Structures are given as structure tokens and as C-alpha cells.
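Chain and conformation:
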Amino acid sequence: MSPAETTSRFAFDAIGTQWQIETEAPLDQALQQHVLDRTERFDATYSRFRPDSLVSQIASAPEGGRFVFPDDALALFGLYDRLYAATDGAVDPLVGRDLELLGYDAAYTLRPAPGAVRAEHACDRPRWAADVGRDGPCVLTRRPVVIDVGAAGKGYLVDLLSAVLDEAGHTGFVVDASGDLLHRGPRPTRVGLENPFDARQVIGVAEVRDGALCASGVNRRAWGDGLHHVLDARTGVPVDRVVATWVVAERAALSDGLATALFFTGEDLLAQSFDFTSVRVRSDGRAEVSPDFPGEVFARRTAP
């Protein structure tokens, strides 16, 4: 959003990243607290990094059980159903245990478990379509499973906070979760596309108007040789053929989820089920750009 449209900025930290809300009129104290409370409820439900969350209760239930999620989880889990199907299981919210075994755990040890431990898990890796039942907002499990909504969760929270602003009567704003954002207003906001091989540079610019832009890159959460947070849930192995993606879509949860899905599945196949435009950078530096992407990519190849 251009400076002429926004006069107020509300910044806070949540779910492990920095957030910024820009609005035409300042958020009053009650609305700021509403935003923070909504964020806390989301974290208390979905965070696998805090022991008191609902997700942590599911992970520690020795024989599984029936767990009641908020009603708004229906849309998030429904999106995961679609992403799971469109990627043949590569995007799976039960990838959490694989992330833990690679060192991306609640304690941030960043040390992979022994190979034998990872191999044992691989022999009986849970699947979203097979190991989780659902009854409305209730999740039913038969054993401990580690849910990780990182593929679409941050974007979903962007949508939830945008709804808070909509309900409060704000018509021009940007909700920005460190680059994953949703825009409302008559004039677009311009966003640089960070070079995945050199964070000091951008490889292009996107213009977002009344929609969302989300990005995913293997350079943002990396902690060892070839170790990062974008895993193929079918194998538990970090991807190595794609290094960065950007997706523009109507809602941030969809943009966020598709930014992950593009690491495994081509735009042409995903476009059969979803409406979006994108940029994808492969590990050899080649950039693949949708014909109708709202912006410009300066070079179709950037040095790896």
C-alpha cells in the first residue's frame, strides 16, 4: 500500500515472526488487543513449539483420541485436504515428526536424530488421509501424530486477522507477516521478490491489489548441509530442485499453501484445482513465471 493510503502502523511479534499491520486510520487500543488475542488463540491451538497447545496434546496422546478444534479449523483442514490431493501427499500436515527428527523441534536443537531413528519412523510414517479422522471441527487419532500447519498456517492467520479488520470497518490495509501478506484498498502495494541466492538483492517486483502474496524459500529456515524446513512429506527429505516460490491468490492461506505445493508440483497441474499466479525459482537459477503474474521478474535466470 502506498504511503498516501496508510497513516498508521501496528507491529508485534507472533508465531515466531514479525508482523506489521498498516491501516488508513489508527487501530484503537481495543482493536489492537483483539488482534493480539486472536493471534494467541491461534498459537495456543496450532503451535508445536509450546507444550500447552492443542497440537502438543495430540502429539503426546499415547493412544490418540478426539480433539476439538475451533470452528475456523474447518477451512484450514479443508485446504490441506485439497493440497494433499493435488500434490499426491507431498504437502501433509502430519510432517511434523519428520521436521522434529531433522532437528527442527520445539527446543530448536537443529541436530538430526540418528539415522536408525529416522528409518524406523519412515517405516510407519503417518498420512493425513489415512491416520486422521475428522468429524466437523473434531480431529480423531489412533496414535500420537505431530501436526505442523507451517505450509499454510501463517497465511491462514493473516486471513483471520484481515477478517478482524474487515469486521471493524477498515477498508484499506495491509496485514504483513514478514512477507506473507494480504492487501485491501484501491491502489496496489509493491513487494520485492528476494533473490534466494543473495538476500541483499531482489529478482523482481510484485504488485498486489485486493489479494494476497506469500513466499516460501529454502534459505529462510536452513540449519545444515541440505537441511531446511520444506520437506516432501512422503519421504521426510528436504526438497532440492526448487529454492523459492511466490504465489498471488485471493486469500493468504491459499497463497501460502500453494507456495509450498509448488516445490513438488508444477503450476499447470495445480492450476487445474486452484486459481493463482506464481513465480518459481529452481536450484539451477531458472525462474518460471506465470504469464499473468502481476509484476515483473528482472531476469529469468539468477546465479545459484
